């Protein structure tokens, strides 16, 4: 009996030794596989925003499904900071938006005389919607009827204010401008001090829901010829429609909006960017389950509405899936 027990213990010892040998022999391969993963620093947005969650989802999903790339999302103050930090190689990829990309690559607007020539596009995501809202009881039904009336162009220093000023100047709309933070502008509409206010947001934008419940609003609608003129002058602005009943009983309104996007340094290797872009599109449905706003995003929107050149790795992917690439979206290094 004792001999049998000793024999069994001996077999178990041999078995454990064999497992140890097999495991340790695999360690170098596992280590090498881990070392092959490229680590990328992603610039996200403020952690209190929905877009930050979108960024973290991309980082998690791409890292999970790609055998070649690991992405870590880092909180930042916004798209402009992301673009500047990326140009200094403090970030590898980042969330941005069409207007920032348009200005940064060309060295105009907020990047005047400070172009970022290594700025490259990976993909466009969901769009924002420019809301130009007025109180229904103000009697204003068209942009032209804003003439001389107090109107807020959007929160002070925000992207919506910048867009409103550009569009209104181009189309000849001449309200009397009321500068204020978004919350203060909303209160001014509620108590009748101004006829309306603006914001560039998603659907529905909570501040308009709030004001509409207190003092019903109307969303002003652009004519198609006006949209065409705006888009031709400012390619970063695209036609959008705010559907009827986005705000209770408010009719459909034609407007313009901006694509959010993801960008990278030109210096990031082509094969790494190709892997990130391919994995993003392949697993977009998984990302969209957590962030439904991007559920209907299509690759075609990236190449048709590129406001900076594509990265060569992204260019390879879009050509691979059969998309025709406009000349202006092809980076200088690929021409």
Structural class: alpha/beta
Number of E-state strands: 12
Can you say what the CATH homologous superfamily of the largest domain is? Periplasmic binding protein-like II
Q: From N to C, what is the helix and strand string?
A: HEHEHEHEEEHEHEHEHEEEHHHH
> Major sheet: size, sense and barrel closure?
5 strands, mixed
How many structural domains are formed by the residues? 2
Write down the overall mean pLDDT. Answer: 90
Question: Could you describe the 3D structure shown?
Answer:
This protein has 335 residues and is of the alpha/beta class. 43% of the residues lie in helices and 19% in strands. The protein has two domains: 38-126 and 260-334, Periplasmic binding protein-like II (D-Maltodextrin-Binding Protein, domain 2, 3-Layer(aba) Sandwich); 129-257, D-Maltodextrin-Binding Protein, domain 2, CATH 3.40.190. The protein has helices spanning 2-35, 50-65, 79-87, 98-106, 159-171, 182-190, 206-214, 224-233, 270-282, 284-290, 299-304, 312-320; strands at residues 38-43, 69-74, 93-97, 119-127, 129-135, 150-151, 176-177, 196-201, 217-219, 238-242, 253-257, 259-265. The strands form four sheets. Strands 2-1-3-12-4 form a five-stranded mixed β-sheet, sandwiched between helices. Strands 8-5-9 form a three-stranded antiparallel β-sheet, with helices on both faces. The protein has a two-stranded parallel sheet with strand order 6-7. The protein is elongated and about 65 Å long. Mean pLDDT is 90; it is low at 20-24 and 27-34.
């Amino acid at each position: 009996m004792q001999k049998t027990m000793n024999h069994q213990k001996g077999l178990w010892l041999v078995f454990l030794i064999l497992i140890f040998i097999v495991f340790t022999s695999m360690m170098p391969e596992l280590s090498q596989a881990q070392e092959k993963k490229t680590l990328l620093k992603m610039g996200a947005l403020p952690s209190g925003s929905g877009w930050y969650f979108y960024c973290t989802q991309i980082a998690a999903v791409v890292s999970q499904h790609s055998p070649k790339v690991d992405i870590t999302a880092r909180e930042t103050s916004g798209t402009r900071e992301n673009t500047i930090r990326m140009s200094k190689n403090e970030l590898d990829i980042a969330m941005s938006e069409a207007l920032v990309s348009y200005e940064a690559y060309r060295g105009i607007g907020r990047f005047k005389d400070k172009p970022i020539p290594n700025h490259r596009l990976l993909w466009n995501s969901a769009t924002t919607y420019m809301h130009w809202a007025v109180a229904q009881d103000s009697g204003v039904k068209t942009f032209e009827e804003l003439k001389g009336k107090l109107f807020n162009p959007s929160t002070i220093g925000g992207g919506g204010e910048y867009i409103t000023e550009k569009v209104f100047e181009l189309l000849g709309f001449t309200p009397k401008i009321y500068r204020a933070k978004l919350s203060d502008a909303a209160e001014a509409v509620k108590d009748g001090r101004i006829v309306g206010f603006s914001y560039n947001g998603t659907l529905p934008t909570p501040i308009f829901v709030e004001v509409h419940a207190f003092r019903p609003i109307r969303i002003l609608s652009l004519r198609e010829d006006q949209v065409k003129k705006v888009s031709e002058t400012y390619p970063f602005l695209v036609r959008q429609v705010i559907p009827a009943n986005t705000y209770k009983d408010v009719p459909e309104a034609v407007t313009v909006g901006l694509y959010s996007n993801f960008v990278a340094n030109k210096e990031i290797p082509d094969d790494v960017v190709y892997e990130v872009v391919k994995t993003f599109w392949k697993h977009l449905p998984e990302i969209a389950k957590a962030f439904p706003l991007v559920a209907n995003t299509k690759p075609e929107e990236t190449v048709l509405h590129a406001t900076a050149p594509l990265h060569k790795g992204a260019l390879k992917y879009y050509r691979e899936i059969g998309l025709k690439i406009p000349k202006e979206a092809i980076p200088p290094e690929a021409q």
